[in-house]
Design brief:
Elements (H helix, E strand, L loop, with lengths): L2 E7 L3 E9 L5 E10 L14 H21 L3 E6 L1 H5 L3 H12 L3 E3 L2 H15 L10 E6 L4 E6 L6 E5 L3 H7 L8 H22 L6 E5 L1 H10 L7 H4 L3 E3 H11 L4 H4 L13 H15 L3 E5 L3 H13 L6
Parallel strand pairs: 1-4, 4-5, 6-9, 9-11
Antiparallel strand pairs: 1-2, 2-3, 6-7, 7-8, 10-11
Helix pairs in contact: 1-3, 4-12, 5-11, 6-11, 7-11, 9-11
């Protein structure tokens, strides 16, 4: 079976996944890594990627090249999302990746990001008669957030909004600890976006909420007080609305240093986790859902599945 490598260049995190894809489309993971590099740090208001974040991203990609080579990957796909998509100097960064790693990076639109994230999420759902087939997928990123409505017998409906944990933190939640007025401003921004989402997606009554990406998996780890991240305990975990409310209440009065004491919080997310938790909380309340099914599968898995579908004529999902 072919071995694929995928690099997801996000606004906050860079992710690597190397996997063998079976004839039926199942992923067999060979290696995976992720690093918080904050590529989108300082992007606003100039809309320019800054030299230090670009250097961190390039160093990360450079260190992954031997990992990819040792795994014997025959195909390497690299994509970039919100930060690079929005940057006026994106060509400078893309040329640097080409020079350092020999990789052509595809810039995904918000809609295409949502489509590939959905491929990954669907690959990770439990099989059998209990498989969820009517749901809203929520992908909270650093610079954008995607909502994907999945209804049996209909094409998915997708909405991408320009709001993510880096953007919301830098523009609303700037003090340490945050002030009540800052939290209120962040909530109002999120609610405005959710008005747009609800208007485009229509009624969501009877739909499960499935959440993916680092904010939601981190909240699942925090809810379980997980000292060491265990993907098998994260994937398909159900986090309740009350648990998200409790975590938001615990995070809000704390300084960044005090948040580092919370078990399960990934180092490097202490200043950003509140923004992501607020996006999840407001989404759950607006959609009227009591819990969120957590998926450790997402864009990076969907990236490989999409590549496999396009290069293997036998690919049928």
């Amino acid at each position: 079976m072919p071995i694929y490598a995928g690099i997801d260049i996000g606004t906050l995190t860079l992710r690597l996944l190397i996997a063998r894809i079976e004839a039926d489309g199942r992923l067999h993971e060979l290696a995976s890594e992720r690093r918080i590099v904050r590529l989108g740090e300082g992007l606003q208001p100039s809309r320019r990627l800054q030299p230090a974040p670009m250097a961190r991203a390039l160093d990360t990609i450079r260190t992954w090249l031997p990992v990819i080579e040792r795994a014997g990957a025959s195909d390497v796909a690299a994509v970039a999302t919100s930060a690079v998509r929005d940057a006026v100097n994106r060509e400078e960064f893309l040329a640097a990746v080409k020079r350092v790693a020999g990789l052509e990076v595809e810039i995904l639109s918000g809609e295409e990001e949502a489509r590939r994230a959905l491929l990954g999420i669907q690959a990770g759902l439990l099989p059998g008669p209990t498989r969820i087939d009517r749901f809203v997928a929520l992908d909270i990123g650093g610079g954008s957030t995607e909502f994907i409505k999945v209804t049996p017998g209909q094409p998915p409906s997708m909405v991408s909004v320009d709001e993510g944990v880096v953007r919301l933190t830098e523009e609303c939640l700037r003090t340490d600890p945050v002030g009540k007025d800052e939290v209120t401003a962040a909530q109002n921004r999120i609610r405005d976006h959710l008005d747009v989402v609800r208007g485009k997606l229509g009624s969501l009554d009877g739909y499960r909420l499935v959440g993916t990406a680092g904010t939601i998996t981190t909240l699942a780890a925090m809810d379980q007080r997980m000292e060491v991240y265990e993907p098998l305990r994260i994937h398909n975990y159900v986090i309740s609305l009350e648990a998200v409310r409790r975590i938001v209440g615990d995070l809000t009065p704390r300084t960044h240093t005090q948040r580092r004491e919370l078990t399960g919080l990934e180092p490097g997310r202490e200043d950003l986790i509140l923004a992501g938790a607020l996006i999840l909380l407001e989404s759950m309340e607006r959609f009227g859902v009591a819990d969120c099914l957590v998926s450790d599968y997402g864009l990076r898995e969907g990236l490989l599945i999409d590549r496999w579908q396009k290069t293997d004529c036998r690919a049928v999902l």
